[in-house]
Give the backbone structure.
Amino acid sequence: MGNKKNLLNEKLKEKGLKFTNQRKDIYDFFLKNQDKHMSAEEILSEIEKGNSEIGLATIYRTLQLFTDTGIIVKHDFDDGRSRYELKTDNDVHNHHHLICQVCGKIIEVNMDLMDELEKEIEDEYDFEITNHIVKLYGHCKDCKK
Amino acid sequence: MGNKKNLLNEKLKEKGLKFTNQRKDIYDFFLKNQDKHMSAEEILSEIEKGNSEIGLATIYRTLQLFTDTGIIVKHDFDDGRSRYELKTDNDVHNHHHLICQVCGKIIEVNMDLMDELEKEIEDEYDFEITNHIVKLYGHCKDCKK
DNA sequence: GTCAATGCAAACGCTTTGCACCTTG
DNA sequence: CAAGGTGCAAAGCGTTTGCATTGAC
C-alpha cells in the first residue's frame, strides 16, 4: 500500500497542502473499504475503532478536499446524508448504482450506459454534457420474491 | 381549472382526507407553475404574495402528502433544498433533467432514455427496476461559449 | 517560524414534530 | 362533534464555520 500512500502525498504536494496523520488515516480507510459507500459519521467511528483520534469537522473538511481533488466521489442515496467512495482509475464517468427499495442495498453498475444517449441529447438540446448521474431503483435479487 | 380541482378533491376523498383551503391553494399553485421546480420556501412566499396565509409546516406536510399521493414529484438538484413539480399524466417514468453547471438552469428532457438499458441491466444484475433518476450535468447553450 | 490544519463548540439551513387550537365532513 | 388539519415554536440532524491551538515543512 506504500505506493498508494505516496499517491496521496503527491496530490497534496501538487496543491501545496500538508500531509497530516488525519488525512493519511482517512485515505487509508478508503483504500481498505473500496467497495463501500460510507457516511462521514461512519468513517469517523470506524477510524476511532482503530487507534486514531479525529474530529468530525476534520472528517468533513477532508471529505470535501478529497472530493475536490478527485480522490473520492460523493454520492446521495436519499438517506439524508452524503456517502463517499474511492474513485477508481477506470471511473472516467462515474459508474452508476442500483438501489434496492426493500433492503437498501447498493449495487454498482459498470456498464457504460449513457455514451450513445448523451450524444443524442447533446444534439437535441444543444447542451454540452460533462457528467451524469444515474440511479436505478427497484428490487434486488434477494428481495424480488 | 374546476375539473382539476375536483381531481384533488377526489384523490383526498379516496384516502379519507380533508379538502382544506391550504391544500387547494398549494395545488392551484402547482397548476399555475407547471414548468417550474419550486422549493418549499418559494412556494410559501409565492402563495403569500397572493392573498392566503399559510404556515411553512403546512407547506412541508402538504408537499409530503402530494408526493406520497403521486400528485407531485420531489427532485434534488444539489442546492440543499428539495424542489417539487406537478406530475404530468405522461410521466410514466419520471422525465429527466439537464442541469447547467454555470447558470443553474434546469432543462427537462422528455426523450425516454432508459427503456433498452433497463432491460439489459435487469438481466445482467438480476435486479427488477421500478424507477430511475437521470441527471445530466454540463453547459447549456447560453453558457457554452 | 510561518501558514495551513485541527478540534471544539456554536451556528446554519432545511425539515420535522409536539401540542393547543381550529376546521371539515 | 369527532377526527383530521393547521400554525407556531422548538427540536432535529447533517454539515459548516469561527477561533484559538497545534503541527507540517
